[in-house]
Specification:
This is ATPase. The protein is α+β, with helices and mostly antiparallel strands. Helices cover 38% and strands 24% of the residues. The strands form two sheets. The chain has a five-stranded mixed β-sheet. Bound molecules: zinc ion (ZN).
């Protein structure tokens, strides 16, 4: 896969229907995960949370990530397949650890980027993410560490990024 093509795909204006900022008032706290919406951004910040949790001006509403999880609405899906993970439990565990680590790193810079679920199905593993950016990072990290084949596809309405990674040997 050419790098240029992939970057162009990811540059296309990605429409996240949960990121409409007009629906959140400043400050808002997510009652599920305790993120704080302030200055047009969501923060994972214990000091801000403490400051606003009992503040009379604070609004309470679920953040975009928690709403996507509740609605089962992923923006990215990564599918891992092939004999390399099917026949090798150690490799599979290593890859799953790498993916969790990648998600932890991403969450530091974007607290709305989360893994929604990791499901092992017959012959493949499916990972759902709340952002297309996290799915992309996971796909690239697996490819960088384990090679194989990597393919990106967008749904026609540009609302879902699907990434397929495959390695046979
Ligand atoms: Zn939340």
């Amino acid at each position: 896969m050419g790098k240029g093509r992939m970057d162009k795909l990811l540059d296309t204006k990605f429409h996240d229907p949960y990121m409409d900022k007009t629906i959140y008032k400043d400050p808002t706290i997510c009652p599920v995960c305790k993120l704080v919406y302030h200055d047009k951004t969501w923060h994972r910040d214990a000091v801000l949370y403490k400051k606003y949790k009992d503040h009379p001006a604070t609004h309470f509403k679920e953040c975009p990530a928690c709403r996507k999880i509740k609605d089962n609405f992923p923006l990215g899906i990564v599918i891992l397949e092939g004999n390399f993970i099917k026949n090798n439990q150690n490799a599979k565990q290593e890859i799953l650890n790498l993916i969790r680590h990648e998600a932890e790193k991403e969450e530091l810079s974007n607290p709305l980027a989360r893994i929604m679920k990791i499901e092992e199905k017959e012959g493949f593993i499916e990972i759902w993410t709340t952002t297309e950016g996290l799915a992309s990072k996971i796909g690239k990290a697996v490819y960088k560490a384990y090679h194989g084949e990597l393919n990106f596809t967008f749904s026609d309405d540009q609302k879902l990024l699907r990434i397929y990674w495959r390695r046979e040997l």
